[in-house]
Amino acid sequence: MSLVEAVAECTVSVWVVLLYELAYPNLCLGMGVFEPVSWDAVRWTYEHGPTKSGMDATTVTVSSVESVGTDAIAIDLTTPAGFEANPGQFVKLTVPVDGEPISRFYTISSPAIEETFEITLTIDPTGELGPTLAELSVGDEIDVAGPFGNAAYAGESETLVLAGGPGVGPAVGIAERTVDDGGSAAIVYLDDEPIHEQRLGALSDAGVSVFVVSDASALEDAISSVAAEHDPQVFVYGFAPFLDLATDGLTGAGLDADGAKMESFGPAPEE
Ligand SMILES: Cc1cc2nc3c(=O)[nH]c(=O)nc-3n(C[C@H](O)[C@H](O)[C@H](O)COP(=O)(O)OP(=O)(O)OC[C@H]3O[C@@H](n4cnc5c(N)ncnc54)[C@H](O)[C@@H]3O)c2cc1C
Question: What's domain 55-148's architecture?
């Protein structure tokens, strides 16, 4: 895609697109005003998990903690013996907060499970567990159980991952794995402060179509653009309001949302 075509295809704040397009030829930015959906429209769509479980809680070691954006970190954990999973499956972390064990789910964001595997999370400063996870350092030990969930990469040759917020973790993991396996991948990522930009840029350089959008209209346009040329397996990851937007975007682009592998990260905060 030429720079001119890319600019014409995206709903844009042009100067931002120009900067990103110069750096990453396959990366489109659609800058618009993000209109959050009504909290009334939010539904708990925890439909796919935990349906398949792996190991019980096992103590693992933090092998790295990296900032990957504003209030966003990627944590590498040592892989316990026998632990196998695909990007898009999730694990349950249990960490003491003020002496009480607190558990939350996090989705695997590395392309494969090797000596370590990665999760990516955004930190809500008012959250119960997030701020404690943000304080983790190399060598700390935490309990991990799983993997859980079926909404994961399963060797599909064409993948399209729709991601909202921290859903970009499994998006980069699945796209990297698809490329490693010789397939073709696309990412449509809705966020007002994008994270994992380095890996998104590397994927763009590797030929993956990466669209970073900031409103529902640009989301649908980007999905339509991918669907015009490919017939991919669709994956959707993010909090419940994003799943609603993604479902509408898929339907608006003429795709069957029921065929998508979707994982909800939970409901929106109560106001
Ligand atoms: C299957 C599954 C997979 C998940 N995978 C990830 C993941 O890969 N990365 C990740 O960061 N989180 C993921 N989550 C969410 C995670 O488990 C926690 O809910 C989140 O980190 C907040 O935990 P907390 O204890 O800090 O906040 P809490 O004290 O639990 O409260 C925070 C509240 O805000 C909501 N919330 C937090 N951030 C956002 C946001 N950006 N947009 C909308 N609502 C928000 C939560 O759902 C909750 O209602 C996943 C959840 C599930 C169920």
Answer: Beta Barrel (2.40)
